[in-house]
Structures are given as C-alpha cells and as structure tokens.
Amino acid sequence: MTGPVPAVVFTHLLRMTDHRATFEHAKLTQPRREHGYCVDDMARVLIVATREPGSGGPVNGLAGKALGFLNDAQSYDGGCRNRMDSAGRWQDQPGTDDHWGRMVWALGTAAAHSDVSLVRRLATVQFERAAQTRSPHPRAMAFAAIGAAELLDVTPGHPAARALLTDYARSIPAAPQDPEWRWPEPRLRYANGALVEAMIATGVALDDPALLDRGLDLLEWLLDLETVDGHLSPTPVAGRGPGDRRPAFDQQPIEVASLADACARAATVDPRPAWPEGLRAAAAWFEGDNDLGMPMWDPSTGGGFDGLHGDRVNLNQGAESTLAALSTMQQARRFSPVPQ
C-alpha cells in the first residue's frame, strides 16, 4: 500500500450490535443472532473503540457496552466466562483461557487510552480484579501482558500490572537453538504476532533490553516468513511449520491484525523502517494485496470478510474479522498519511 490508509468506519460493527453486545457471527452482512455473543469479541470491541482518536457518541457507546459486558462476565477471583446466548444467559463457567487474556488486554487498553474518564476508572477496577489470577496458556498470558503494559505505561508502578508482567516474563520459554526455526514452538499456531508483541511490551515496561531485543528480532523473522512475493501470506488455520508449502489456506484476518499490532508496538520503540512497512503490508492485505488479489473488507462500512480460502473469499462479515480490519487500519493510520 503506497497511498493513504482508508478511514476507519464503524457502520457494520454498529449494525452487528444490539442493546446487549456485538453478535459473534454474520451471514453476509446480517448478524446471526442465534449464535449469541462472546467475551473474545467484546474485548476486541473495547480495544478498537477506546483507541479510536476523537471518537463520537456511537463509538463511545460501543466502549461502554463492551465494558459492561466484560464486567458481567467476570468472577470475583479474576476468571471470566466467555459465551452468552442471545437471551442474555451465560453458557459456560469462569476460566482463564484466551478470552480471559483478551479481556485483560482490553481493560488495560481502555484504562490507558479511553477519552472518557469513567471508562478509564471502571476499566482499571476490572483490570485489578482480573489480574488476581494467572493462566496456564501462553497466548492467554501474552494477551494479558499486553494489557498490563498498556496500563503500566500511563500508571507507572501499578502493582497488579507489574506483578502480572513479571510473572509473564518468567513464563517465556528459552529461545530455540535451531537458526532456521527461531519460533519458541514447533509450529506457528494462531495470534503469533501477539506473542512477540507481548515480549516487546514487557521488555519495555520492565526495562529488560534482552527481552525487548528478542521480541524485535523474532518479529523481524516472523514478518520475513509471512511475506511471499512482496505481500503478506499469513499462517493458515492449520498452522505453519518448517518446510510447509506456501501459500496455505484458510487465512484469517485476525492473524493479519495480530501482525499489525506487533509492528505498531515495535515502531514506537525502534526506528527501523521494517515496522511501518509491515503495517502498510497488513493494511494492503485487506485491500487485496494478498495471495488471491482479492479485497478482504468493505471500506464503505468497515465490514471485514471472514476468511481467505484457496479459491475464494468468505464474504460473511463476522465480528472477529470486522474488528481485525478496523484494528489494522487504526494501527496503519498511525504511521501513514491520512486521506484529505
């Protein structure tokens, strides 16, 4: 992408949202109400809504709705439920899987970036409740660490945020010794960008130069691996290992958004041009600079398409894909010209 990044438009996200929350799935542009709502998506709603500069009433309303949903999902010991049906009934018990980590990420982001003082205060209270516990899952802890780093950036010395980051740093596995496969897992899985973003954010927050450098180096390796013929070709749903053929499908927008978030984080602490270039490549993936040469979102409404298959685009516009597109454009606009 060489020109300005398209504007962030919330039309479709608002269409997907009722009085309670944002529906998880869509049939083309229409919400599939029968599938209900989830914390994973409402955490993403809170992140996107609170980091949008100068957001107006409808976007602030999304943030308030997300904050209320996450509060209702939480238990007193820090865990949270994930799924609610369309009638407002929770369908599971509190836990600390990925949805918990995304919730902590969202609460830290809202506490740091919301334009509304009440949202900042309530998000901080909820963050402190959630940060009482820990997750055994590496990605959940990485998501939570990103939120803790956001909060610590605006509230230096915040004890719950610092304790969470310290525990996360201790949990990071040692770097593998294989120079050809530097990833800390045998295969790339999902939300890979979040693992390196968490390393970068934690390295900065805890003043750990070695961890920061490891995160930056690993992000550079990941971007190189995920780039084919000058465009992004992200890890498919089945993962990616050494020697796997590329391109591979199905590709999910959330993987591109994860890379964009990591590049945006890196760009704030390292002046190399690779990070703004990575952001532009992520935005360009949605615009059609991908393995099929087909757009992955509708810029007129902000709706994101649900997946890139080997022969077509999945034109359903669910919440996760829509939020991935909006998040990517937000991040890319921070380091790119704004259209006049």
Our Rg estimate from Cα atoms comes to: 19 Å
Which regions contain 5 or more consecutive residues with pLDDT less than 50? none
End-to-end Cα distance: 17 Å
Largest sheet: 2 strands, antiparallel
Protein name: Glycosyltransferase, group I
Please, could you describe this protein's structure?
The chain is mainly alpha-helical and 340 residues long. The protein has 2 domains: 1-35 and 172-340, no CATH class; 55-171, no CATH class. Helices cover 50% and strands 6% of the residues. It contains 12 helices and 10 strands. The chain has helices at residues 11-15, 39-50, 57-73, 98-113, 117-130, 138-154, 159-171, 192-205, 209-225, 253-267, 274-287, 319-333, and strands at residues 26-27, 30-31, 37-38, 83-84, 227-228, 231-232, 297-298, 303-304, 307-308, 313-314. InterPro entries: 6-hairpin_glycosidase_sf. This is Glycosyltransferase, group I.
Summarize the SSE layout with pairings.
Blueprint: H1 11-15, E1 26-27, E2 30-31, E3 37-38, H2 39-50, H3 57-73, E4 83-84, H4 98-113, H5 117-130, H6 138-154, H7 159-171, H8 192-205, H9 209-225, E5 227-228, E6 231-232, H10 253-267, H11 274-287, E7 297-298, E8 303-304, E9 307-308, E10 313-314, H12 319-333
Antiparallel strand pairs: 1-2, 3-4, 5-6, 7-8, 9-10
Helix pairs in contact: 2-3, 2-4, 2-12, 3-5, 4-5, 4-6, 6-7, 6-8, 7-8, 8-9, 8-10, 10-11, 10-12, 11-12
